[in-house]
Write a structure and sequence with these properties.
Length: about 750
């Protein structure tokens, strides 16, 4: 099992990770029905400006407001409602970085949007796949591991602290991690760099905010039937529209997905059932209430690793699967219910309240290989069972107003948010019968009974966070200043109640102030340089050898770049450089490294990113990116030999590109769409010790072809056949991180029959 998965997480839920590190387990109103890219849930918002206008063009039908006020559209389009001005793979506005609907080109941070059309074209199956073409993101660090959505941004892991849904953070525990079903999303927004000035505790690398599908005022429907490799059968549906006899006040959305599938892992299942209803009530033009809910049941293998000889300094990789079908299931059951409320008091004042309650239960059963006999005939094994239950309540209140003071136009937002997470962990472990491996030729998987260990260990935790924030986006001529500040109070309680080693509760309280200062200067309407400085923090539960609580880990980033938009076209180019330092990182105590840790480490990440997103015309969408990330330990008194060594598993250089073309009605090939992508990851260290070997470069190719049957017969309008292939040349590769090696996903293909109306 990947011991490194949680080794460098900078959590607000650091306590979760400490308790969770078991032996060997720490690890415009519009409706484009061709793609079901529907945004009519924001039907009362103004449509984005015409394509021929720049980002500052006056929005169509926008309510009157202060001249030159920052933002696109009315003041009612922020607060987790997703990107705006979406055309193909491009988006003009996003609320993720500012909690107001700000043009991306005017945001003093790096922001990328993955639209619904892109998700459809690539037939995305996981969150990791969804962000695989985003600059600065390392989504393949742990190879093929369907148990988690685990990835890094700018070298920092964000799995436990950086995933948001509809503007609210999704806390997680080691094995109660909320899963994200991409079919249930309208879009994803990736904000790179510290976001604590608005969102509170988190990792320095950034966040990913996913936007749930919402009700529409335009009736539509979709059915998606899919067949894939490894006996994959999947069906999905998406329905929405106004509710009859509601006088236009009520609309609904119902999304579901059902999958039964094996995987290339022996005996490994990838089953999932999801149902997500939503309803919107709009009693008048100024008020809306959207209720969002979901139930998800997910079963995947409990172990996704292949045995590696850790005693070998080269970390010899093998094709020997470490799990066993006789005892290896990881089941996650989760439900969420919440709402997004918005009321506009006038054209320039709006109040929003976002609320959600989340419950996640994870039941992990795994078997793993610990040793191999010298004659390669048997493998010594152990197993474990871990159950995690996580209950989270989140509330965010926002008040946004727009006004002018002399020559300065302001967009001011203030808010108070609250998060309460309660987590329970139970676990047990056993030594189990050896696996007969026959010289690594024919392991007898599933041939032996493997007992279920009793749950003998138990612990619980509670984390409460209360944050107050304020942000002013002030525009003076061509200069836009973004000033953000936030104060957080965090209380953490942890307690072990396992006999006979029960311990009393340990309590830690932290307070922190985080901020961001950013500036954009409009050289022209389409060329905007920017610079920003931002800070972040995350509490760390535990005590050093002197009995003192750990100081929170803190981070700061300087970022500068240039954003451009081609006049009259949906072509966007972002260039950025960044320098991030994270301090108070937990490292082994120099005096007693065996028993204690100390908040004495420091990590620095420097790099550059280049991103192109374009809709070059009807049916022509292009993505391209380059990233350079140099992340190293810069201070570690407990192990000074690691200073200056890059962190393992993070490619120093990545290049991605994806393009898709749909032939138009005036061509002989109308109805046909063709596309493909390339994902290149450069070398990286395999471990953080001097002289460690490195991971090789990896280049993967993806492809898509689709045909709309309306060309063959007008009566088949809405019927579409689509074939996707990932890792088309079946590249076999491993990625090693912190000395543990993970196998990449082999070639996978999907054939989909889609009907839309």
């Amino acid at each position: 099992m990947p011991a490194s998965r949680y080794a460098r997480v900078t959590p607000p839920l650091a306590a979760f990770l400490l308790i969770g590190s078991a032996p060997a387990l720490a690890q415009q109103a519009s409706a484009t029905l061709d793609t079901i890219s529907v945004e009519a849930s924001r039907a009362r918002q103004p449509a984005p400006g015409p394509a021929s206008g720049g980002p500052l063009a006056t929005p169509v039908a926008a309510p009157s407001g202060p001249a030159g006020a920052v933002g696109v559209g009315s003041a009612t389009s922020g607060g987790g409602g997703g990107p705006t001005g979406v055309v193909g793979y491009t988006a003009r506005g996003s609320a993720a970085a500012t909690k107001t609907n700000t043009p991306i080109i005017e945001t003093p941070a790096s922001v990328s949007v993955v639209t619904r059309e892109q998700l459809n074209d690539r037939n995305v199956q996981t969150l990791n796949e969804a962000i695989a073409y985003t600059p600065g993101v390392s989504s393949n660090v742990f190879g093929f591991d369907p148990r988690f959505d685990a990835f890094y941004i700018r070298g920092f892991e964000v799995t436990n602290v950086g995933i948001y849904r509809d503007g609210l953070r999704q806390p997680s525990a080691p094995f109660a991690i909320p899963r994200v079903e991409p079919y249930g999303l309208d879009a994803l927004t990736i904000l790179r760099g510290p976001a604590a000035g608005l969102y509170g505790l988190g990792a320095p690398g950034g966040i990913v905010d996913v936007t749930s599908k919402r009700p529409t005022s335009v009736p539509f429907g979709e059915i998606w039937l899919q067949r894939g490799k490894y006996d994959r059968y999947q069906g999905a549906f998406d329905l929405g529209g106004p509710i009859e006899q509601s006088d236009g006040q009520l609309s609904y959305r119902l999304t579901g997905l059902f999958r039964q599938s094996d995987s290339f892992l022996p005996g490994g299942r990838e089953d999932r059932n999801v149902i997500a209803p939503a309803i919107t009530w709009r009693p008048d033009a100024e008020t809306s209430l959207t209720v969002l809910a979901e139930y998800l049941d997910n079963t995947v293998p409990g172990n996704a690793s292949f045995y590696s000889n850790f005693a070998d300094p080269r970390f010899q990789k093998t094709n020997l699967f470490s799990g066993d079908p006789a005892f290896q299931d990881y089941t996650t059951r989760q439900y969420r219910v919440g709402y997004a409320f918005e009321h506009r008091f006038g054209p320039d004042v709006v109040f929003r309240q976002n609320f959600r309650t989340y419950n996640v239960f994870g039941d992990l059963r795994y078997t793993q290989i610990d040793t191999i006999s010298p004659d390669l005939q048997t493998a010594g094994r152990s197993n474990g069972r871990i159950t995690n239950a996580l209950d989270t309540l989140s509330l965010d209140n926002q008040l946004e107003t727009r006004f002018t003071t002399g020559p300065v136009a302001h967009t001011l937002i203030g808010g108070i948010d609250y998060t309460n997470s309660r987590y329970t962990d139970r676990r047990g472990f056993l030594v189990v019968p050896d696996l007969q491996i026959g010289g690594l030729i024919r392991p007898n998987y599933g041939a032996q009974f493997i007992p279920t260990p009793a749950l003998t260990g138990a612990s619980r935790q509670r984390i409460e966070q209360l944050g107050t924030y304020v942000q002013d986006q002030a525009r003076i001529g061509s200069l836009i200043l973004t000033l953000t500040g936030r104060h957080d109070q965090v209380s953490q309680l942890a307690e072990s109640y396992s006999a006979p080693a029960a311990t009393g509760p340990t309590i830690a309280n932290d307070r922190a102030f985080s901020y961001r200062v950013g500036a954009n200067y409009l050289l022209t309407d389409f060329i905007v340089p920017y610079a920003s400085f931002a800070t972040t923090f995350a509490p760390q539960l535990g005590f050093d050898r002197n009995g003192a609580a750990f100081q929170p880990t803190t981070g700061e980033q300087f970022e500068a770049g240039i954003k451009t938009q081609m006049p009259g076209r949906n072509v966007f180019l972002n260039m950025a450089v960044f320098d991030i330092t994270q301090s108070n990182v937990l490292r082994p105590d120099p005096v007693n490294p065996i028993l204690f840790q100390a908040a004495i480490g420091e990590v620095r990440s420097k790099g550059a990113e280049l991103e192109l997103t374009a809709n070059l015309g009807p049916g022509i969408n292009v993505l391209a990116s380059y990233s350079h990330v140099d992340i190293r330990t810069t201070r570690n008194p407990g192990a000074p030999e690691t200073v200056g060594i890059p962190l393992s598993g993070i490619p120093a250089n990545t290049v991605t590109a994806f393009a898709n073309y749909a032939f138009q009605p005036d061509t002989d090939l109308f109805g046909l769409s063709l596309g493909g992508g390339i994902r290149y990851a450069g070398t990286s260290p395999a471990n953080e010790v001097p002289g460690s070997f490195g991971n090789s470069t990896v280049t993967l190719f993806d492809a898509v072809a689709a045909y709309d049957f309306v060309k063959a017969d007008p009566r088949l309008k809405g019927m579409r056949l689509q074939v996707n292939v990932n890792n088309a040349f079946d590249r076999r590769y491993f990625n090693c991180q912190a000395g543990a090696c993970y196998r990449g996903q082999p070639r996978q293909f999907f054939a989909s029959l889609i009907y839309r109306w």
